[in-house]
Amino acid sequence: MIKIVLMIVVFIFSIEANAWVSGTGVTIENIIVWEEAETATQMYIRTSNNIWCYLPPGQKTLQSLVLTLYTTKKPIEIHCHDAAENLQSNLPAHRLHRIWTL
């Protein structure tokens, strides 16, 4: 019995835990794009709850979606990774994980 309990405890602690920086019912307030090579363009977005997230380079479809959501001010739900990175101009931002409209 103790082996089963121990196995369950080890299994639970070995599960990868992800923390997210998120917002529900927020809008995209700002977009920043720096001049770079065509394939390496980073896009940064700031949501109405003051969270900065960035899109991975080369994600043209995702960039188009973000620009459309920014223009229409449609409410979204957004999840970005927990760890902030300083990739451009000392702007700490979280990598975008998931975005969808409400």
Q: Could you provide a short overview of the structure?
A:
This protein has helices at residues 2-14, 60-72, and strands spanning 20-26, 28-33, 43-47, 52-55, 76-86, 92-101. The chain is of the alpha+beta class and 102 residues long. The longest helix is centred in the N-terminal third of the chain and has 13 residues, at 2-14.
Task: Explain what you see.
- The structure is a single chain.
- With 102 residues, this protein is an alpha+beta fold.
- The chain has a single domain (18-101), classed as OB fold (Dihydrolipoamide Acetyltransferase, E2P) (Beta Barrel).
- The protein is 25% helix and 42% strand.
- It is built from 2 helices and 6 strands, in the order H-E-E-E-E-H-E-E.
- A 6-stranded mixed sheet has the order 1-5-6-4-3-2, covered by helices on one side.
- The longest helix is centred in the first third of the chain and has 13 residues, at 2-14.
- The protein starts with a helix and ends with a strand.
- 18% of the residues are buried.
| Rg, nearest Å | 18 Å
Low confidence ranges: none
Q: Helix/strand/pairing class, anyone?
A: alpha+beta
Number of self-contained structural domains: 1
For the record, the CATH class is: Mainly Beta
How would you name the oligomeric state of the polypeptide chains in this document?
single chain
Neighbour order of strands in the largest sheet: 1-5-6-4-3-2
The fraction of residues assigned to DSSP E strands is: 35-45%
Assign a percent range to the helix content. 25-40%
Indicate the overall shape. elongated
Largest sheet: 6 strands, mixed
Distance between the termini: 47 Å
Number of strands: 6
CATH architecture identity: Beta Barrel
**CATH topology title:** OB fold (Dihydrolipoamide Acetyltransferase, E2P)
Q: What series of H and E elements makes up the topology?
A: HEEEEHEE
| Residue-averaged pLDDT | 83
